[in-house]
Amino acid sequence: MGSVPELAVSAVRVRAEQALAAVLERLPAGPSVLRRTLDLEAEALRGAMTVAVAGMVSTGKSTLVNALLGADLLATGFRPVTYVPALLLYGDLQTIRADRKVITIEELRALSDRETAGPQTGIRKFEIEGPWPALRWFDLIDTPGFGSAYDADDSRTLAELVRADAVVAVLKTANLSADEAAVLRRFQAGEGARGPLSPISCLGVLTMLEGRWQPETPELDPLRVGERDAQQIMKQPEAARLLLRVFPVCSMVGAAAATLDETDFGDLEELSKAPVRVLLKSLITVEKFGGAELPVSSERRLALGHRFRPYGIHLACGLIRDGVDSVEQLRTELDARSGLPELRSLLVNHFGRRRDLLKVTRVVTRVSALNTDDLSADARERFAVDSALRRVADLVRDDQDLAEYEVLTRLYDGRLVVPEDLAQEFRRAAGEHGASVADRLNLTPSTPLAVLEATALDRLAASRDSLLVLDPHAVSVLRAIERRYELIVHRVRTARALLEDGI
Amino acid sequence: MNDLGVLKNDALSLFDRVAAKLPADAGEQTVRRLDAAERRLRESGSVLVVLGQFDKGKSMLLNALLEEPGLLPAADGAATRLTVTVRPGPVERIVVRLADPDGRRPDEEREITRAEMAGYVLESAEPAADRARATELVVELPNAKLGEDLTILDTPGTGSLFSGHAIATLGVLPIADAVLYVTDALQPLLASELAFIKQIAEGLDLPAHPGRLLFAVTKTDQATDPAAAVADLRDRLKEVPGAQDAVVVPVSARLRLIHLADGDPQDLAASNLTALEAALWPAVRGVRERLRLGTALNELGAVVDELAQPFEAALGVLAARDAQHQQSFDEAAEAALADLAASTEAAEQVPAEVADLLAAHTERLTREADVRLARLWEDLRDEYRSDAKLCDDPQQLMDLLASWLALLSTDLGTAADKAVAGVRDEIVERFGHRVRARLQALLPAAPMPEPFVPGAGAHSRPSPVEMLVRAAEAAAQGAQQGADAADRLSAILATGLVRNLAPAPGTMTVTLAAELLKTFQGKTADREDPGAAKLRMVGTIVGATLAFVGALKNALGLARSEQIAALDKFFRDWEPDLRAFFAESLAELMESHAASIGTQLRVFLESRSEAARQVVARIEAARGATDRGAERAEVEARLEELLVLGREIDRIVAAAGLGPA
């Protein structure tokens, strides 16, 4: 693992580490399957969280990774380009390794392209470290796509996914294909990541939306089109059961923005001086754009067109015409219009914030399934190990965050069935729509503390009086909500006390 | 006009010339046969089937090919739900076929507007109120590209929820003229697509007819490297028997549609649609035109040979020396009379004999079905054992099974056709079929089997294209009903059998299969054509198979070994039902064959009687002739005229490349 910048270690992780250590202590001496498993779990708990980017072949996974990092790292293209998984980690300096051997970025590009290198290179994995802010919170794995005509790719991808804690599912169209639905179902059945995936550990991204823009209707924002498609996807059961939501992004515009330099800016500035109608007419295809009567050399136009796609060119020229006058500014504006900032922040909020919860839950699930029968002939010894193991399993019951997380998981996978408004209130209170107190109470950020406190108390009272308490499913949700509201009341009171003291 | 068109015109003028040579007392059957054969040659008609994964732009490509922007509803990322049939008509008319929810009354047909189509056809559009009942959509329009006679079937793509339609289409392929497989330049061919292409190739018997499958690689306007997409596809096609040299054309339907609006020739050139059309239209029309020409000439030749027979007989009699005069006359007349008597007698006995022969074949085919089904079942078991994906994905598993069963049904149907043809030929041969074999076994595995004698029944029978379209409808409806039944079935299963997914043998599955069958039988109460019966079998089997997808979803949460055990049990329990289904369908198919072969043989025997009567009459005329020299000169002249016609037929056969090598 790379040198992960330390986040505050959560209490739950500390307790989980202690509980695991306690089991290890009680294990009979000498190597055993159980010891090895627990060692691995403990190590996984200490490591950074791993998010895998997965999807069908040629859906633009590498383009998305490039865009997320804001770097032009991985080779992208039509054929299944990525055939070796790449692990991307946070590090102070950019270092690239092919199976531990340090290589240059040019070597990486050559080696990671099936066209130039071919699958016979024998390399099993790339590790890329660099100071990319997005990776402060988790490691990323770029995987080969599913469903290519190269069978080996599928098994490689699955092997990588088993190591991941969470998954970004990359989708391409408004209707899940049978293949895509199959991949999602396999995730749900527990074949992706360590154990079954759920909306807590899985979100969808609809990529390459710039292709949906057409100069015939230039005002049509592809992200808006994508938003409609995303809703359509979420209507399909395979998606709804598995994905928190689906994010539309123009990943190629995002990747192009990240690598925008002074020369690009100069050329785009020239191009923006051309009459809008002429420019639009040329943007029907990249080839047409390259061949049109426009400023800047035809060669450069082709190169820009391939990188930015017609939509990116249209956007950039429009922004420059509207007064954007520096590389930095154009980069930010394009990035904002690619939909990527929202995705980055969701990844950090959703996965980053929960990383300890995700990891601990996974450890608990796996430890609970361990069998001690063959461990030792000594019944007392077995009992000691068993009770230590039970402490690990009990983590879920005793910790508010974990308990709430458990209820959330059960709601998502359908083991708990409650009225929709209750489910919605719970998801909101549990921070699914934002982790701030105001978000959890569905109030605007500027709501005064006194109002927050009063609202939380009202809701707490309403939960306690709910008639749903007679329903065994609803009652566990109600309890989790109550505990959350209690915490909120406590937190708001503390804040008020501090503030009022300060005054 | 192409060469084939010239030859066709030559053949049509020959029909007139032969008709002029008919004796005044020519038999009714001979006139009818000529009439029917000529009509078949004139009627023309071809079918193009468009297949491919969903969201590859099939509908948009068709709009571009037909130069009809906005005809078929198409939107990025939207899947087509129904099979859409586009065919020529005098005025534009769009009809949606709506199934009766209870399956008791016949389908309702409703005329709708272009704007209303999306509500029925597009998955993502605001659905029409009765969309769930829609089984099929037919567009009739005057269109230069369709001409008089081209029908196009636009199928919902594979890989979508409506893949049953496409799988059912596999059953139609043996009689389709050509398939346009659409893929795009944005994504390499998926493993699942390649598997489907292999099945299409099998359905088309591609190694024997390599020109029948063409590929369009669409969306080149959005792709960074269309050439790579074409290269990738070609590379993949090396694995498909018969597709190694298939036509692959990269195109942009969008640029063609923009060109239609703006008229910029650069857009047309960049769309590359001209290249696709140059390859596509001849491929669509060529096969059937040649076949049609071949069958017509064969029939014409048979009539000419029969017309010549009396003159040949009379000439033989007239050429004999005086001493044997009387005897020759008598012998020839006797032989002709015996022939006449035999034909009349046979006309009474043959039906029973045919029934016996067909029954023996039905039994043999049923045994073959059992054996092949057992083998298929074994392959299926191997498949989900070696491929973990299939266990987790009931849709994929059942799609695979459905396509295997579709191909098995198609094979059995073809085997039934062959068996029936064998029976027919055997009986015909017994009467000394004297027609010369002009064609080199017609065409290899003729894509559109024509009846031996397009005789009496031909007036009421639909054209082959019509039959094909009806068959495709039957198949699509089967698939659709299967999908509907799947919802019902999974609801039943979800209540009581959540984990124990395999229903007790002979209960659920039998009920469902029987129910599906009955629905179809109710709809086709009148005796149907064997071609349609065959396709109905395919549609039903695909529909019934896909109905179980929901049932299998319950196996998802199980461990791998449990999954395999559950699937084993499920399929084991289902096998007897399927065996019964095939046995019943084959019996039904053979029955409808028996009816049609009965008609054919009756026509044949009547023709024989007529020919015999002509021979007798001509011999009588020769016997009664006062001036034998003049009689002989006239007979020779008449015979020569017929021989000239025969040679002309041979010339056209050779020119069309249909003759013996």
From TrEMBL, chain A:
<dbReference type="InterPro" id="IPR045063">
    <property type="entry name" value="Dynamin_N"/>
</dbReference>
<feature type="domain" description="Dynamin N-terminal">
    <location>
        <begin position="51"/>
        <end position="207"/>
    </location>
</feature>
<dbReference type="InterPro" id="IPR051943">
    <property type="entry name" value="TRAFAC_Dynamin-like_GTPase"/>
</dbReference>
<protein>
    <submittedName>
        <fullName>Dynamin family protein</fullName>
    </submittedName>
</protein>
<dbReference type="InterPro" id="IPR027417">
    <property type="entry name" value="P-loop_NTPase"/>
</dbReference>
<dbReference type="Pfam" id="PF00350">
    <property type="entry name" value="Dynamin_N"/>
</dbReference>
TrEMBL record, chain B:
<dbReference type="Pfam" id="PF00350">
    <property type="entry name" value="Dynamin_N"/>
</dbReference>
<dbReference type="InterPro" id="IPR045063">
    <property type="entry name" value="Dynamin_N"/>
</dbReference>
<protein>
    <recommendedName>
        <fullName>Dynamin N-terminal domain-containing protein</fullName>
    </recommendedName>
</protein>
<feature type="domain" description="Dynamin N-terminal">
    <location>
        <begin position="48"/>
        <end position="201"/>
    </location>
</feature>
<dbReference type="InterPro" id="IPR051943">
    <property type="entry name" value="TRAFAC_Dynamin-like_GTPase"/>
</dbReference>
<dbReference type="InterPro" id="IPR027417">
    <property type="entry name" value="P-loop_NTPase"/>
</dbReference>
